[in-house]
Write a structure and sequence with these properties.
Strand content of chain B: 5-15%
Family (chain A): Belongs to the binding-protein-dependent transport system permease family.
CATH class of the largest domain in chain B: Alpha Beta
Largest sheet of chain C: none
Largest sheet of chain B: 5 strands, mixed
CATH topology of chain C: MetI-like fold
InterPro entries (chain A): MetI-like, MetI-like_sf
Membrane topology (chain A): Multi-pass membrane protein
Number of strands of chain C: 0
Oligomer: heterotrimer
CATH superfamily of the largest domain in chain B: Periplasmic binding protein-like II
Number of helices of chain C: 14
Shape of chain B: globular
Pfam family, one (chain A): BPD_transp_1
CATH superfamily of chain C: MetI-like
Number of domains of chain C: 1
Number of strands of chain B: 14
Chains: A mainly alpha (281), B alpha/beta (433), C mainly alpha (295)
Radius of gyration of chain C: 24 Å
Strand content of chain C: under 5%
Largest interface: A-C, 100 and 101 residues
Keywords (chain A): Cell membrane, Membrane, Transmembrane, Transmembrane helix, Transport
Chain lengths: 281, 433, 295
């Protein structure tokens, strides 16, 4: 591999490097722009410069965004709902995969295909009928109105990934355990799950990425603050502070921050997880 | 392996404790609601610290102070999101108790037909000072279903300081308005800021022109929609005049995708010399977020007269749009009506709105004049008291909600010339049928 | 032991949570959609059975065809613009090694972790014709800078640009992983044969990436069909229906025009199109594979 890079001339290398830097710039610049104006006075957006050097850094914008945007509450809800969704998706998909791959029954193939079909179903197609169902069952404006669809629409991917990883685990291991008198449940939860740690991380990350940013369902099914998630901080703020762009920018930057921080800290695992999940999927 | 098992167990208990916590929380709130009445309000005023939202919240706070056993829960979204969510609510069984409604057939008819609103006792409001006819839009078959919040007038806000500095005059005719647009553009400013992505301001602009061409047109519009007959040349002429304005660059570049907030901000940040919007925006003059040099220089004029048109500048686009209603399935109907009545006691909504320079209520507010009105307030007062005819509800809101979507889409397409005037008329006829 | 593996109760208890979630959250709603799709239900009041009327209207509705056309446009845009850049960048990154490799990989993926709500609002500001970033850049380069980015004719390109920008890191990462999985021995052999980097890329990297590319293409088409959030906040389908997509279209019809039954008929067609697209793509790729194997 190294031989190749040696062959490319020094000038060629520099050109390539500059290209990569330019793309990095394109990917990052809108975000830099966002942070810049979030610290400025709202009127400064209307000046002609591409970036501004704020006359006075307006930290107050962030204070407003933090307090009036219900940031803490929505953040807490987002964490709770997404974590629960991940836990459920992991448990349910491992159980279902085990049933379809290892257990011996006639319909295992059909059921697995059925579950996987969910991957092709557009989540928005269920928006209208689900509203009617949740309303009848009194689930609107409860945590379940978000949890159920979030789990359901991440499940197919979960089943797909766990089942493909599970088939790679040699069956002999379980059989030995069975001979020792272990029950199926113990095998699933104490043997298979730990063995699949890496792939479970992948499923968890994919589920998080899928659901963390979702807001169509949330805004249709929820009405009070109790369970609203982070994207609401932005959706509500644009109405509340329609005449103050700087505060709007601040709330956007603030809302982006947690996911960004987590990503930068766990960057290695996330890229690996996504890559593993995507290439398999 | 033991460690793994332990962590799995830990995760499991965490989940259990979380759900248990959730359950606990809801049960405590149930207990609280036993001795407290919770009134759920669904509002289209998301900004609770300025404008009408501020007045609404002030009144709610005051009511809760006076009635310690009442809790008012507000869910507020801006107009478009509000209307969408309202329809979602309407299809379900858990509507909020006090809701915002528009006294327009496109919004209200379907809702009244489905018996979603509680009938109010019209006699209760005899001494509330509602202006004659202001509750008509909220009534059906002689029954009253809601109270009007405001008298809405559509006009051009303009920045007096910019006009003065450049020696521009308030246009007296539509041709002058178009000529002025050219001058303002040459000065490097946006002539008139327009909210085109919400589309209804465009439709109102067209109707405003219809009123200037023929002040009696309003008697025909409803029939035209019902029969799908837009042969009357007034419609085509108004549509043509609207296209002329768009062609002349009266509106900012990209107005068809500019949302409400952005359109307003262009005006309040001195990027645009004018802003075509309703009287509820007079509160710009008292909004601390608006820069002082703009805030203190806001004037208003009406759509100028059209060459050959029968209408005068005093034939204005005005109606009673927004208001409140109590839902039929509310479990706290009595309490919600009490709250509604409290809000509209003349010394509450009407007075607060006027004193804070926010809007003109649908009630008689003359006794609350302070002598310290903003110039926008004074201009609007003069305009309303001097009006010779009003449009009433504009054409886009006179049909079904489907007609509303179609006609407003068409107004936008007309503005960006993806349909011609002939196609505009043709498609309106189709939509009406 | 065999008995344990075919114990009906254990099977049932293992599969039930997954199956119930699927039935309750996906299957039942879709059945309900099929039912409502045959009615003139407005969302409130009573529903009348009107047979296939919704579907005949739908096939005559220009908004529907526009949505499909836009999905196709997006998919082609992804495949012809986003993916080639992503593959090339991934190949270059693979050669970089060391800290720079990790840095760029990390930076490229950043837009992906940011909420669509933020992305859409942010780009609305970037595109604003009067004070947005793009026109300011154009102005500073000496152009007039009054491009109406979200206006008629430009809007769909602007939407495409945002989606390409947002999804670039994802596509890049997948290709990158694919390239990493290629056996380095092949490259070494090519180097010994004196192949240039461009030749190596065309002759070795691309052919070996075939399955990854196929998968990415499938995902691009599905993503283009399912597009909703960005468009909803950025243009809401406008101007006119120029940037309309199926999901946004059904939302608009159901909630804005009170045509709940009609909206549900769109849902049904939407599901059918997504399923059909997947099946067809799988068929196409499977056939190609077979033909190649035979040859």
């Amino acid at each position: 591999m190294n031989s190749d890079i040696r062959k490319t001339g020094k000038s060629g290398k520099i050109v390539l490097f500059i290209c990569l830097l330019v793309i990095a710039g394109i990917q990052l610049f809108p975000l830099i722009w966002l942070v810049d104006f979030s610290l400025a006075n709202p009127n400064e957006l209307f000046t002609s410069g591409i970036l501004v050097w704020p006359e006075k850094i307006q930290w107050g914008n962030y204070v407003k965004a933090f307090v009036d945007g219900n940031f803490l509450l929505y953040f807490k809800n987002s964490i709770l709902i997404n974590t629960l969704a991940v836990v459920f998706v992991l448990l349910i998909s491992v159980m279902a995969s085990f049933a379809c791959i290892r257990m011996e029954w006639k319909l295992s193939g059909v059921v697995k295909t059925l579950l996987l079909m969910g991957m092709m179903i557009p989540i928005h197609a269920t928006l209208l009928p689900n509203f009617v169902i949740y309303d009848k069952l009194g689930l609107t404006d409860t945590i379940w109105a978000l949890l159920i669809p979030y789990i359901a629409f991440s499940l197919p991917q979960g089943v797909f990934l766990t089942s493909s990883f599970m088939s790679a685990i040699p069956k002999e291991l379980e059989e030995a355990a069975l001979l020792d008198g272990c029950g199926i449940y113990r095998i699933v939860f104490t043997m298979i799950m730990p063995l699949m740690k890496a792939s479970l991380v992948t499923v968890a990350i994919m589920t998080y990425l899928n659901n963390w940013n979702e807001f169509m369902m949330a805004s249709t099914y929820l009405s009070t603050k109790t369970w609203k998630t982070l994207p609401f901080a932005i959706l509500e703020f644009t109405g509340q502070y329609s005449s103050n762009y700087a505060v709007q920018f601040a709330v956007m930057a603030l809302t982006a921050a947690p996911a960004l921080l987590i990503y930068i800290i766990l960057n290695k695992y996330i890229t690996k997880g996504v890559a593993a999940g995507a290439v398999k999927g | 392996m033991k460690k793994k098992l332990l962590s799995a167990l830990l995760a499991f208990t965490m989940v259990l404790s979380m759900t248990a916590c959730g359950a606990k929380e809801s049960s405590t709130s149930d207990q609280a609601s036993e001795d407290k009445v919770t009134i759920k309000v669904f509002s289209n005023l998301p900004d609770r610290t300025n404008g009408q939202g501020f007045v609404e919240q002030t009144l709610f706070d005051q009511y809760m102070d006076e009635n310690p056993d009442v809790v008012i829960q507000v869910e507020a979204l801006d107009d478009e999101a509000y209307k969408t969510k309202f329809k979602a609510y309407a299809s379900g069984s858990n509507m909020p108790d006090l809701v915002n409604v528009w006294g327009q057939p496109s919004f209200l008819n379907e809702i009244i037909d489905a018996n979603l609103l509680t009938e109010l006792n019209a006699a209760d409001y005899a001494d509330y000072g509602f202006i004659n006819g202001s509750l008509d839009g909220f009534s059906n078959d002689g029954k009253l279903y809601g109270l009007a919040r405001n008298t809405d007038v559509m006009g051009f806000y303009y920045n007096k300081a910019i006009f003065e500095k450049n020696g521009w005059e308030v246009p007296q005719t539509y041709d002058e308005l178009i000529a002025l647009a050219g001058k303002i553009k040459d000065a490097g400013l946006i002539p008139c800021s327009m909210d085109g992505s919400d589309k209804w301001p465009l439709s109102i602009y067209v109707h405003d022109l219809m009123q200037k061409i023929d002040p009696d047109i309003k008697t025909q519009v409803q029939d035209s929609i019902a029969n799908g007959d837009f042969l009357n040349p007034v419609y085509a002429q108004a549509a043509g005049l609207f296209v002329d304005a768009a062609d002349a660059g009266l509106f900012q570049s990209g107005f068809e995708t500019t949302d409400y907030g952005t359109a307003k901000n262009l005006f309040t940040n001195s990027q645009a010399a004018m802003f075509y919007m309703g009287s509820w925006e007079m509160s710009m003059a008292t909004d601390e977020n608006v820069p002082e040099d703009v805030r203190n220089n806001i004037g208003v004029f009406m759509m100028p007269t059209v060459a050959g048109g029968a209408g005068n500048v005093t034939d204005i686009a005005a109606w009673n749009g927004g208001g409140y209603a109590v839902t039929a399935n509310s479990k706290v109907k009595e309490e919600a009506i009490k709250l509604l009545n409290f809000m509209f006691k003349p010394e509450n909504w009407s007075k607060l709105c006027w004193e804070n320079g926010i809007c003109m209520s649908a009630q008689n507010y003359s006794e609350y004049l302070t002598g310290e009105e903003t110039s926008a307030q004074l201009d609007f007062t003069d305009i309303v008291s001097g009006s010779t005819s009003v449009t009433g509800v504009t054409f886009n809101d006179l049909g079904t909600s489907e007609f509303k979507t179609l006609s407003e889409d068409l107004s936008q397409e007309l503005a960006i010339k993806s349909v011609s005037v002939e196609e505009f008329i043709g498609k309106l006829e189709e939509a009406g049928k | 032991m065999k008995k344990l593996y075919s114990n009906k109760y254990i099977i049932l208890s293992l599969i039930a949570p997954g199956l119930l979630t699927f039935v309750f959250a996906i299957l039942v709603p879709i059945c309900l959609s099929v039912y409502y799709g045959f009615t003139d239900f407005s969302g409130i009041g009573a529903a009348n059975f009107i047979g296939l009327e919704n579907y005949t209207t739908l096939f005559k509705d220009s908004g529907f065809w526009m949505s499909l056309r836009n999905s196709l446009f997006l998919a082609v845009g992804f495949i012809l613009i986003q993916h080639p850049i992503a593959i090339v960048v991934a190949a270059i990154l693979d050669k970089l090694q060391g800290k720079a490799e990790g840095f760029f990989r990390c930076v490229y993926f950043i837009p992906n972790v940011i909420s669509v709500a933020i992305i859409a609002y942010l780009w609305k500001f970037i595109y604003n014709p009067n004070f947005g970033l793009f026109n300011k850049i154009l102005q500073s380069l000496g152009f007039k800078g009054d491009v109406n980015w979200l206006g008629s004719g430009n809007a769909i390109w602007s939407v495409l640009l945002v989606l390409i920008w947002h999804g670039f890191g994802w596509g890049m990462l997948i290709y990158y992983t694919g390239i990493k999985n290629i056996d380095p021995v092949l490259y070494e052999a090519a180097a010994i044969d004196g192949a240039t980097s461009a030749q190596t890329f065309m002759k070795i990297t691309l052919p070996l990436m075939k399955t990854v590319i196929q998968m990415n293409v499938t995902m691009a088409i599905i993503a283009a069909l399912k597009q909703m959030e960005t468009v909803y906040l950025l243009t809401n389908g406008g101007p006119g229906n120029e940037t309309q997509f199926l999901a946004n279209f059904l939302y608009k019809e159901a909630f804005k025009s009170y045509k709940y039954g009609y909206g549900n008929s769109i849902s049904v067609i939407f599901v059918i199109i997504c399923l059909a697209a997947t099946v067809i793509l799988n068929k196409i790729f499977a056939e190609k594979d077979e033909r190649r194997k035979r040859a």
